[in-house]
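Cross-check.
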Amino acid sequence: MIITRTPYRVSFFGGGTDYPSWYREHGGQVLATSIDKYCYITCRFLPPFFEHSIRLAYSEIELCNTIDEIKHPSIRETLRNVGINSAIEIHHDGDMPARSGIGSSSSFTVGLLNALSGLNNENITKEDLLRRSLIIEQEILEETVGSQDQTMAVHGGFNHIKFSQQGNISVNKIAIPTENLSLLNSHLMLFFTGLTRMASSIALTYVNSLQKNEIRLTRMSSMVDEAIN
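Predicted model, tokenized:
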């Protein structure tokens, strides 16, 4: 049995500049941190005593016999990506509700890919974990998502993330003195409103007009440098 714990994130500055359609032309950067709330994925090979060969437990229960039957898009495509064809059982538990704006869907994909790679005896690196997570979400599932959520889920910590026009992603971990971190934490409050929404659906309302907001997004990117200082 493999168990992974993947953090959720809070983004402070630069959000919007992490969409490939923007940073592949202009570059981008984000200041964000992981938080002490997590997505847990448990997976194991299923014993051959059941009528089904795939059992999934998340907000729903799925009993399937082939990968094609799986309704959950991320689970279906991640299983294909890893190449597991054996009978399998996957459980998801989270410290926060889904669709609450803290990168939970990307944490799920990263945690699942990490868990399945371990179950498949594959020693996956952080670089490969990030690359394959982005491919699953942005290219295979064609979700309208940026690249900061997957990066934060893979690396954790308090990070300055840069996105180059060539598509490269660099992560600079920011070492904050304990007294400064305590001061920052004492001035932050995070609330769950009880409202949930699909981030990709919200992004569809503005991602196609990113180029029209060049002045605004350039300013948002420059705020990252101000915030770090």
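DSSP finds eight helices and seven strands in the chain. The first strand starts at residue 2 and ends at 13. Passed to J.P. for a second look.
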